[in-house]
Every structure is written in structure tokens, then in C-alpha cells.
Amino acid sequence: MLSFIARRLGLLIPTFFGITLLTFALIRLIPGDPVEVMMGERRVDPEMHAQAMERLGLNKPLPVQYLDYVGKLAQGDLGESLRTRESVWTEFLTLFPATLELSFAALLFAGTVGLLAGVIAALKRGSLFDHGVMGISLAGYSMPIFWWGLILIMFFSVSLGWTPVSGRIDLLYDIEPKTGFMLIDTLLSDEEGAFKDAVMHLILPAIVLGTIPLAVIARMTRSSMLEVLREDYIRTARAKGLSPARVVFVHGLRNALIPVLTVFGLQVGTLLAGAVLTETIFSWPGVGKWLIEAIGARDYPVVQNGILLIACLVILVNFVVDILYGLANPRIRHQR
Amino acid sequence: MTSPIPKSVTPASPVDRSLLYPSPYKEFWHAFSRNKGAVMGLAFMCLVVFCALFAPWVAPHDPSEQYRDFLLTPPVWLEGGTWQFILGTDELGRDLLSRLIQGARLSLLIGLSSVVMSLIPGILLGLLAGFFPHLLGPSIMRLMDVMLALPSLLLAVAIVAILGPGLINTVIAIAIVSLPSYVRLTRAAVMGELNRDYVTAARLAGAGLPRLMFVTVLPNCMAPLIVQATLSFSSAILDAAALGFLGLGVQPPTPEWGTMLASARDYIERAWWVVSLPGLTILLSVLAINLMGDGLRDALDPKLKNAA
Amino acid sequence: MTSLALRAALAAIILGTAGQLAAKPLVVCTEASPEGFDVVQYTTAVTFDATAETVFNRLVDFRPGTTDIQPALAERWDISPDGLTYTFHLRQGVKFHTTDYFTPTRDFNADDVLWSLNRQLDPNHPWHAKTSVGYPYFESMAFKDLLKSVEKTDEHTVVITLTRPEAPFLRDMAMGFTSIYSAEYGDQLLKAGTTGELNSKPIGTGPFIFQRYNKDAQVRYKPNPDYFRGKPPSDALIFAIATDSNVRLQKLRANECQVALYPKPDDVPSMKADPRLKVAEIEALVTGYIAMNTEHKYLSDVRVRKAINMAFDRQTHVDQLFGKGNALVGVNPYPPTMIGYNSDNQNPPRDLAKARELLKEAGVPEGTVITLFTRNGGGATNPNPRLSAEMLQADLKQIGLKLEIRVMEWAEMLRRAKKGEADLVSTGWAGDNGDPDNFLSPLLSCDAAKTGENYARWCNSKFQELITRAREVIDNDERARLYAEALKVYDDDQPWISMAHPKMFTAMRANVEGYVINPLTNNNFATTKVK
Fold it and tell me: Rounded distance, CA A117 to CA C22, Å?
């Protein structure tokens, strides 16, 4: 077991370096530099430009810049945003809880509804419910997510007025960002009605973001459940006279969940990426929007380290899923 | 392929030989057509392909022609609509139906070219990774891990920012982003096949490496790849739409469905058809492709047939 | 008796709480996040709204709703006859903000002015190098060469000496980049080694005190009780960041914000029809235009440029892009409200046949391809550049020119357009101070052609001579005459396709009072309240 974990960990290191190299190269390849963006339409005095580039350390040859960057990383220094001069780490910590909260809510929605629908569809195979669930989930990941979001806003927020239009909370509540998670902060504050308001603001974005994971989890649960239900040991359990509920949930679901677990893990990556579009539509102040704007402003430290942080998170989640999968399925553990 | 069950022959009624041994294609079609959804998907896609091929003749108007007197006309079934513009017009007075039909060309082109552009290198890299598992393989897989760790949309945005917006660059960006999944899939399939007897036999018979790779092993790995290809065809269309939405897609006035959606966002309250119709078209097309993909997977892999 | 006392007490409690309930914050929906709060480092309008208009003041200000100068931190000023020396007599008794991170020990005085200006001017100032990309406005307006020295003669008098007479100088001093910081606060940060906090915890003399910035979500301010023009009437000011104009309108309708900046012109009619909302409008000092690269093979010929101008259907374009009546069709580089506007200049009437003739004369082959660079998002000067580009494309097709539209990301477009890679560039300009030179020098001067921001790369010596002279002359009538002449030269040579002078709109709830819309597109809420 330990060697399995150690091997997996060992693979992470070159991946990590690969990511730093890739993000560094990518952002430098984009034409334009931060000084030009700052000046905008106005003229850029070549002397001023050169001075600014020197101050930012951008006039050194690229390999030197890369080594500087990696050197600083090794010391835990993630640099400062070129625009706001705030530490990248601080900005990330300010914005990431918003993305995390949204992703968590989306995953919760997708997980509970998806698992339930998948299990029931598997049990009632071939029925109208089954076809309905499969059809809807197929539609779910065939839609452009931003279109879906706009339609939902149009319907639920503008026409029906059931949910607010955008943002995390009504601005009349002055909530101090102690943890960054609006749900927790509103509970900690003593403003009445703030928690309920925060929840209302979270509903629609979570549904939009969770639509695709919901579809994938439902389908995966169903097919995995169907496979498990055909197995001999299920037949044995039934023959032994165990109640159907026990058969399904204790014997069946536990084994069916294994592939679903990997899917869950993969969805985390999708969520963090898909959050970009959702954040844009719902004016949700998270990291997705932050990164897209940083690319546009050529804010090198933010782009490089922001993407690095997210990538590390994705790798971490996949790593944990790998370990859990290995724990659950001994065949994988002993494979090459 | 299942072996045919020979019928007991009664000499009185001569039996058509071809029925006894169904060709692989017939058998495939038989399995595929059992899935109603897949057939419907196929039918819709045929419609889309037809529109794409014969767009200039099928479309009632020139998609770029701006009828400045008919800006934002509603579809024919709403008040203010006219039969001249069945699905209404957009903010520049261009016929929506013609733009959607022309857009079929672009979306199919984007889907097809991005799949081909990532399939071929993906298969190659996967084969190499599978056949050289000691050094080359792990390096390739690490590279793919790196690419997979980055959020795909951001990666695509960065690539388009480097290359500049435009149709070809959008396709390149999408192709690069979908590459890792092909490599992983091919490698897994190849490694599964490499231990089989027929491969050992071929090696003993003296088959050279290229022959081994492309003639012996690859054809047996195609099934999951084909399914993945249909999936990425549909996600290519969605990715192109997303890039168009962020303003990094094809250049105007090309009527790509996603870009149409993006520019129509401002009219969501006044002229909902400019937003809903392109979105609906994307939904139906991607749905059709996914249904087909499902049907393909069921028909090609008997193990999965019962599961889904 | 007791019941009366009880009732009185009850009434007092109710009125007291009612007073608290009546604490009305003013929520303003803005279009982007401020880049930072150290205003001199930035150029975007939203950053200026969030800093220069709230936290800071300058020596002089623009009278609300106009481009006239009024005293601010300087009560009065004297200008020497040769136009080289400006003496500012500072207002006394102005206090800097007190917050939980800074308490001033003295009132505003000349040291603060010196600190703020010398920081940008003098390379030896301890704060000069504490910036990431420099001081964009200070540098692009060549203040480094213009200012000879900034000195004080006593605690309440500052003398600024220029190297040459500059007519727009006083107006320049009303611009955001001359905002006055607290020298004491600067020293405090320097001593503590936390100079970066100037960008996140600003201190000024302005109507609002900075409270908190939740990144990408909101900025909160509270009113400054010691503001020298009187405490602002609203109990709190909140900037809600909503990048999408549809979202801003939806929030306004739901009363989640009381003021929405930069509404779409298309939405204006429905907003005006809504009894809960009202719309303020003004003919702003902005121009949307398309620059024609005069170094291009065919575009260097004035006949070709005239032909293009004849083919462009300006009226339809303005009506379609902005909505009827929401913009003036552009003729001159700047709108009619500024001096020197030459009303004799007219756009050529639309004449496709004549245009074709001119092209043939100039020897342009049928189907010649011209590229148009435009950015991929809308802005104040053009809400939908793609739409503009597509309309021009259709128009040019009718005279046999093929327009290739290249939508690109803003940063990339800037770089390429400044290098002269484009044939046509679709862009815009918003005036900073109401002076014609602020439009003409950065966009059409020979200097700007060399550095690239004159996208037309047009250098006309007669034009240049006229605007250089107009810049130095102090007499307004003389300047007007010179500018009118310069504009005639411009009109003869037509380096641009003039498009429009859009009106600026601000949407708000019907019960918002005291907001004055400004022609310079900045937004100040010092006198605004919700009734």
C-alpha cells in the first residue's frame, strides 16, 4: 500500500514542474506586455516603458526569468499582482472560497440528485423514469452552460422573481469576510436574514454549474449499478433472503460507487474550469473571472501562480481519488 | 463478433446464404437501430449534414445580407413576424434561419477538424506510449497529466490569445485541449492488447514495429476511440461556442452558432429569439451526436450493451 | 401621566429605530472592478470613479455637469503674465480622513501638494520608484517635461513653474492624476515598510472615507463628516461590481442598486418608460471613430479616404448602434461643446457612384482587401464594435472594397495598432479635461504618429503648427480661431472615418436626487442621496 502511494507521489513532482513550465511559457507567448496594457490608448514613452520593464524584471532573458520564478516558488513566494500589487496568495485566498463554495454546492446538488436518480433508474430499468432520467441527463451535458444560465436567470429571476439576479448576497448586508465562505460568514455575523439571503443567491449558480456533473454522475451510477446488480454475489444475497433494500444499498451500492468515485474526482476539474463561465454570468467574484481578466491584462504573476494553484488542487484531488480507488479495488493497487 | 448459429436446413425452402452469416456491417446496424434514440440522433445529424453541404441552396437568404429595414423582426408565429424571415432576424437585419443553416457548416467543420487534429496525434502518442513503456511512455503521460491539470477553458483561452482569434486558431486550441484524453485512451487500450496472444504471434512472425502498431494492434483499439471521438465532436462544438461567448471565437460576420449566442446576449429581453434559437440548435445538434455516440458504444461493445 | 410618558417613550423608540431604518445607503452598480486605490498609477474610468471622485480632491475641480474650473483644495490662484508661473493659495482647515489605520495630526497643507506631485516628477522622491508600471497619465501628458518645479513659499502657498506656456494646464490640474495625498500617511507607510498599502488603504480629503474592498464584489465607503464642501447626504456609499450591463439593469429594476452606470443605449427607451426609474443624459466629450492608416498603399491617397467616407452610411450606423437620438453623428474629432468646433465642416453626403469613381481614379483594383482591427468588447465610446465593423463591411462591399474584420483582444490590438499593422482601427477617445488639445495632440499630432497612438499615422505640418500655437496661447478667442483653422485642415485631409459622439446615460431609481451627470464621464456622488 505504501509503495503504491509513494509511487503515485513520485509521479507528481515532474508533473508539477511541467505545469510551471507550461504556464510560464504560455503567458509569455501571448503578444503584449503589462505596461502596454496599463497605458492603454495613451502613448508609451519608450524610455518609461524600458524603465518599467526593468522594474518588473521583464527585460531579462526568458530562461533567467523562469529560474527566478521557480526559485521564488521554492521559497513559497508567489509574487504580487502587477496591477493591484497585492500578494497573489492573498488575492487567491480572498477569491477562492467563493469558487469553492459554489463548486461545493454544485457538487452537493449533482451528487445527491445524480446518485438518487441513477440508482432508481437502474432499479427501474427500461421504465419511463429510466428513459426520462437518461434523456434529461444527456440533454444536461449537451447544452452550452452559459446559455442554460441565461435562460434560467431570465425565467426564475426576471420573470418569476424567485431568486436574485447576481452576486453572493444583497449588498445592504455588510458582512465581514472572516472566512470567505458567505454561508459561514452570514451565520457568524448578527445580521438577520443574511444567511437565508446568501442561500438564495447560491441556488441558481449551483444548479447551473452542477448540471453537467449531475448528468455524468447519474449516467455513471446507473450503468455501474446495472453491472453490479447482474453479479453473482447479488444473486446469492437475494437467494439468501435478504431484504431488497439491504441488497441494493449494502451490497450493491457500495461496489457500484467505486467507478462513480473516479467520476466525482474528475468532475472537480470540470467544476473549477466551468466555474469561469458561471462566475461571469452570475457576477460571482471567484477565481475563474480573476484569471480570465489577468490573462487579458497580462498580469504574469497572477496567471502563472493562479493557474498553478488551481492545477495543484486538481492534481491533489485526483491523487486522493487514485488512492481511494486503489484502497477500494485491490487489483489496481498491484498493477504496474 | 458473435459466431453465427447455423440453422437446421430444410432442403424444401432454400435459405439465403447471407442471412446465415450476417456481415459485420449488417450486424452493427441491427444492434444500432435497436436504440431508438440513436436512430433519431442519426436522422437529425443527417439533416444537419444536408444543411451544411447544401447551405447556399437551402438557405432562403444570404446569411451576411443586412436588411436594414427589418432589424430584429420576430419569427413568423409571433406578432410582427413575416414569412420572408421565418425565424426572424438579428440585430443587423440578417435572416436567422439562413445564418443557422450556414452555421451548421461551420460547427460541423469545427467539430470534424478538431477531432481529426487531435485524434491523429493522440493515437500516435498513445501508441508510442504503449509500445515504449519504460522511458518514452511515462514522459508522454506526464505531459498529458500536465495538460489535464490545467483548466481546459483557461488553456484554450491562453492558446487563442497567443494565436489570435479566428476559425483555424479556435480549432487548434480545441484540438490541443482534447488531445490528452485520446492519448490516455489509446495507451490504455494498447497496453491491454499487448499481452494478447495474437500480438505475440505477430511478433514471432517477424512483424516490424510500424506493422505491429498500425496493422495488428490499432484496429482492435478503435472501438473506445470511436466513441470518444463522437463525444469530443460534440464538446468541440460546445467549446467553440464558449470561446465565442468570451469573444475569442471566429471573426464576424461568420455565423458560428456560439458567437451568434454571445452577441445576442444583449437582446435577451427584447428579442429572445436571437438568443434562444442558436442555443436550441446547439443543444439539439450536440444531443443528437451524443445519442449517436451512445448507440455506437452499445453496438460496438457487447459488454456495455446490457449495462446502459 | 405615565401612559403619556410611556407613549412618548414608545414614540421616541419608534422614531429612533425609524431613523435607523431610514439610514439609506446609496448602492451604485459599476461596470468593472477598480484596479487599485493609488489613483496615479491607473487610467481607467472606473478606478477614477472609485478613488479620485470619492477619496481624493485636487487643487481645482470641474464644476459638476460642466468642464469649467472651480476652486477645490486651492481657494484661488494667480497666473504670471508669461504663463509660466502658477501660484496656488491653498484652502485652510481641510482635514484628512481618520480611519482605523491612520489618524492625521495636522490639517492639509502645502507639504501634501508637494509630496503628491513630486512623487511623480522627481526621481529622487522616496516614493517615485514605488510603482509597478509607472505613472501613466503623468507620463503620457509629458508633465515630466512641462513642470520645471513644484515648490512652496509657505504652509499654504504652492508655486508651480512650467517650462513653456501651456493653456490647458489649469484643466490638467483638475484631472485625477493630480490628486492630493497625505504626506504624513506616506511617511507613516514608508517608516513601517508597508508602502504597498497605499494601494489598498487610501487616505485623502474627499467626500467619502474608504472602508472596505471585497475584491470583484463591492467597495464600501462612509461619508466624511469633515468634508470641506459639507458632509455627503447618503449614509453609506457602496459600489457593486456587475460587469454585465444586463445584470446592472436587472439589479436596478430589483432595487438592488439605486444607480446603474453605463446602461446600454438600447435599454434607454424602456427605462425612460418605467415610472420607477429615470435616466440622466448628457452630450459627453467622447468620440468614436475609425482611424485610416495613412501609410497604407491605397489609404495614403486622400481620394480613397474620401471614397470610404462617402460610402459609410453614418446615420443608419448611429441609429442602429446607439438607438435614435442617443448619439450625434461625428464630423470633427471632438464634439460641438468644445471651443474651436468648426461647424462648416460637413460629412460628405452618401454617394456610392461617386465613391466608386474616386476609387477608380486612384487606381484601386476591385476587391482590394483592407483590414479593420477592433476590440472584442464594448466600451463607453462604442457599445458594440463588432456591429459597427459589420455595418462598415456591408457598406464597403458596395463600392468594391473587401473589409476583413479582425476582432482581437484589447492588449493585442493596442500593440499591433500602435505598430501600424492595421489598415483601419476602430477605437474611441474620452476627453479628460474639456480642452481641444486633449483630443488633438494625443490622437492627431506628429509626435503621436511617431509613438503610435495616432493610429492614422497622420502628420500634417500645417495642422501641427496650428495646434502647437493654440496650446501656448492663453487667450480663449484666439485659441478658438486657431483650432477652427486646424479642423479645416483636418477636414480636407480626412484621416479618420468619424462615427459618433455618443450621449452618456446614467440610469437610476426615480427617488435618487442630487446626481449630476458629467460630460467627462466621471461620476461623483458627494451630493447624491436616496429620498
Answer: 49
Q: How far is Cα C215 from Cα C203, in angstroms, rounded to an integer?
A: 19
Cα–Cα distances in angstroms (integers) from residue C317 to residues A209, A289, B68, B92, in the given order: 38, 33, 10, 10
Is the ipTM above a cut-off of 0.90?
no
Pairing mode, strands C259-261 and C25-30: parallel
Q: Which of C246, C316, C387 sits opposite B68 (nearest CB)?
A: C316
Q: Which residue from A71, A83, A64 is spatially nearest to A300, judged by alpha carbons?
A: A83
C313-345 confidence digits (pLDDT tens): 888 888 888 888 888 898 899 998 888 888 888
Give me the sign of the Cα torsion angle C139, C142, C145, C146. Answer: negative
State pLDDT tens for residues C179-208. Answer: 999 999 999 999 999 888 899 999 999 999
Across B92-97, average pLDDT = 85
* Dihedral, CA of residue C509, residue C512, residue C516 and residue C520, to nearest 10: -40
Distances (CA, A) of A98 to A177, B166, C407: 11, 33, 32
Describe chain B by its helix, strand, coil percentages, rounded to 5.
70, 0, 30
Q: Which of B67, B83, B64 is nearest to B75 (CA)?
A: B83
Which of A45, A198, A207 lies closest to A114 in space, CA to CA?
A207
User: In one letter, which amino acid is A73?
Assistant: L
Whole-number Å distance between alpha carbons of B190 and A146: 38
Cell representation of residue B2: 458473435
pLDDT of residue B304: 47
The shortest CB-CB distance from B252 to any of C266, C316, C389 is to C389
End-to-end CA distance of chain B: 19
Name which of A9, A11, A133, A146 to mutate to probe chain B: the one with the most chain B Cβ atoms within 10 A of its Cβ: A146
The C-alpha atoms of residue A211 and residue B58 are separated, in whole angstroms, by 35
Q: Does pLDDT of B21 surpass 80?
A: no
Q: What is the DSSP letter of B85?
A: B
Query: What gap in Å lies between CA B27 and CA B31, rounded to an integer?
Result: 6
The C-alpha atoms of residue A119 and residue A256 are separated, in whole angstroms, by 10
C-alpha C506/C-alpha C235 separation (Å) is: 21
At which residue does the C-alpha cell 461496489 appear? A255
Tell me which of A88-102, C110-124, C262-276, C402-416 is least confident.
C402-416
Q: How far apart are CA B104 and CA B85, in angstroms?
A: 18
Can you tell me the distance from the alpha carbon of B165 to that of C61, in angstroms, rounded to the nearest whole number?
43
What are the cell numbers at C302? 486622400
Residue pLDDT, tens place only, C500-515: 999 999 999 999 999 9
| Spatial separation of the C-alpha atoms in residues A196 and C320, rounded to whole Å | 43
* Å between A152 CA and nearest CA of chain C: 13
Grid cell 523562469 is found at: A66
Identify the helix (H) or strand (E) that includes residue B3. none
On chain C, the residues whose CB falls within 8 A of the CB of B71 are 320
CB atoms within 10 A of CB C287: 25
Specify the pTM: 0.81
Q: Give SS3 for A181.
A: coil
Q: Name the residue among B164, B252, B265 with its Cβ closest to that of C386.
A: B252
CB contact under 8 A, B146 and A19: yes
- The Cα-based distances of B278 to A143, A262, B102, B130, B236 in angstroms read 11, 34, 12, 42, 16
Owner of C-alpha cell 513550465? A21
C-alpha cell at A195: 444567511
Q: Are C87 and C77 within 8 A, CB to CB?
A: yes
C-alpha dist (Å) from residue A273 to A292, A300, B152: 11, 19, 6
The DSSP annotation for B94-111 comes to -BHHHHHHHHHHHHHHHH
Helix, strand, coil percent content, chain A, rounded in steps of 5: 75, 0, 25
**Is the dihedral angle over the CA atoms C290, C294, C295, C297 positive or is it negative?**
positive
Whether omega before C223 lies within 30 degrees of 0, making that bond cis, reads no
